[in-house]
Amino acid sequence: QVQLVESGGGLVQPGGSLRLSCAASGFTFSTNTMSWYRQTPGKGRELVATIHSSGGITIYEDSVKGRFTISRDNAKNTVSLQMTGLKPEDTAVYFCNARACLNYVCGPKYTDWGQGTQVTVSS
Prior knowledge:
The protein is an all-beta fold and 123 residues long. The protein is built from no helices and eleven strands.
């Protein structure tokens, strides 16, 4: 079955950096587009960044452009999110998932989410 295990979160001061990792199993990782999402209390999951299967195309939401970098290692079935210039509004639980599109509507591919990793940005 699909397993997604996120790690690397923590407490960091504004302006600081963190690197999140996601280990994936149970599906053919190398052929899937992967994304990072985040969720805060009372809000739904928000798409943060996406990387295509080969790693050649990356897409970022405006709020994180220039600060976050998504990457992947298809040999290790991992996807990472390097976060710099962190702001208090980046505080959230971060999740990874594959991303799929149907009739030009895109969203998370798997219903089996991991536990996520908490990122807290605070002084």
